[in-house]
Write a structure and sequence with these properties.
The chain is of the alpha+beta class. It contains 15 helices and 16 strands. The strands form four sheets. It has a nine-stranded mixed sheet. The protein has a three-stranded antiparallel sheet with strand order 5-4-15, with no helix packed on it. Strands 3-16 form a two-stranded antiparallel sheet.
Length: 481
Amino acid sequence: MEFEPVIGLEVHAQLATSSKLFCGCSTRYGAEANTQTCPVCLGMPGSLPVLNREAVRMAVMMGQAVEAEVRGRSVFARKNYFYPDLPKGYQISQYELPVIEHGRLRIEPDEGAPKLIGITRIHMEEDAGKSLHEGFGEGVTAIDLNRTGTPLIEIVSEPDMRSPAEAVAYLKKLHSMVRYLEICDGNMQEGSFRCDANVSIRPAGREEFGTRTELKNLNSFRNVERAIHYEMARQQEVIEDGGHVFQETRLWDADAGHTRSMRSKEEANDYRYFPDPDLLPLEVSETLVDEARSSLPELPDAKRERFMEAYGLKDYDASVLTTSRELADYYERVVATGADPKLAANWTMVELLGALNKDGTEITESPISAEDLGRLVQRIEDETISGKIAKQVFEPMYAEGADPDTIIEREGLKQITDTSAIEATVEEVIAENEAQVQQYLDGKEKVLGYFVGQVMKKTGGKANPQQVNQVVKERLDAKKG
C-alpha cells in the first residue's frame, strides 16, 4: 500500500525585544544563569505582569507579512502544567482567541511545484526556563530561569505539507521572513527559532488523517528533514505489521538518527486553559496596526520579483540572493558600483558564498566588501583581467581583505590585450608544434584548443582568451591556402 504524509509545523520564534514579555528583565542570551529574573517572571506571590507593547507590534508585523487577520481583541490564558523549569506552574499563552489568525505562506520546495501553506494562527506566549542535564554530576539537573518570560510567537500551520521537502521549504521561508522583519534573529542553535513537527501518514488518496505524532528537538533544517523521513518510515512499518500508531510526543535523536517516545500527547483540555485574571484582554488599535504596517520592509517574494525585473536574473538566482535581507543588500551594493548584475550575481553566489559557507561565516562578516567585489567584476568587464585570472585575484582578496586593483598590480596580473604581443606568441607556438599544425590542416579542428592552451600557458594565463582564439584561427587558416 502506498502512503502519503500529512505534516504540520509549530514554529516558535523568540521576538527580538530587549526585555521580556511581562517584565523589564533583559532577554540577552548567554548571561550567567539566573541573573536575568525578577518576581514577575518567577511568578512570586503579589507580582503582576505588564504586557510589552513592542512584542505586540512585532507579532502584528508577522501577521501582516503572511497576509493574516489581526484580531482587534485577543485574550491571554494560563496554560497549566508542571515542569521543573516552569516556576509559576503555568505558562501565559493565548488559546481560544489568538492575536493573529488565517494566514498563508507561498513556498517553492526543491522537489515539486510552488504551493500555498495555510497558517492557522499566530499567538503570543512567554517562554519557559531551561533544564541543564550535563556537567553537574550524575543524576543532577540544574535549572536556568533566565529565559523564563522571554516573548515568543508560535506560528501554527495547517497540515498542508505532503513531503519533508515541503516542510523544509516552509520552515526556511518562515526563517527568512522573521529575519527580514528583524523581529527574530533566527538563531536555531541558541533556540530563538525552533520547530515541532506533527506527522501522520495515510493511504494515498484517502481524505481522513492518520494518528499524528509530535516531533521535538528539531534544531536545524537538516534535522527537520531527517526526523520526518524517519517518522514516516516508522509509522508505515507499525501499520504494515498490524499495529496502531499512538498519539504521542517523540524526541529526535540526531546522533542515533531515530525518534524515541517522550510522553503520550496531551490534549488541550489537559492544560486546563483559562483566561489569565491578571491580564486584561489585548485590544490591538488601528494605530498600532498602521504603525506595524508602515515598518514592513520589502519582503522576500517582492524582492525576488524586483531582482528578476530590474537585474534580468533568473528565478533561481533571484531566490538565492534574496534568501536573507543581508545577502540581498550586499548584492545590491555590488551592483551599485556599476558591475554587470548577472556577472555580479555569479560572483556573489558561487565564489563568495562558496567561500563563506566553507568557513561557516555569515555574509555580514565577509572579508570582501561589496564595493571591492564590484570592482573585481568591473575588472573582468573592462578586460583588465580574465575570468580565470579573477579567481586568482579573489583568493588574496578573501584572505587579506585587500582591494582587487592592489592585488592585480602587485602580482602583475593585468591581461595582455596588445595584439602584436599576442600575435608574436601565437607564431612562436605554431612554429614549435608542426605535428599539430598538420593535424589542423588535415581537418582535425579540435586541435585548435591545443594551440590556445599553449599560448595561454606561455603568457601565464594573462592573454585575452578571445583575442588568442581569433589570432590562432587566422594564422592556421592562412596556412591552408
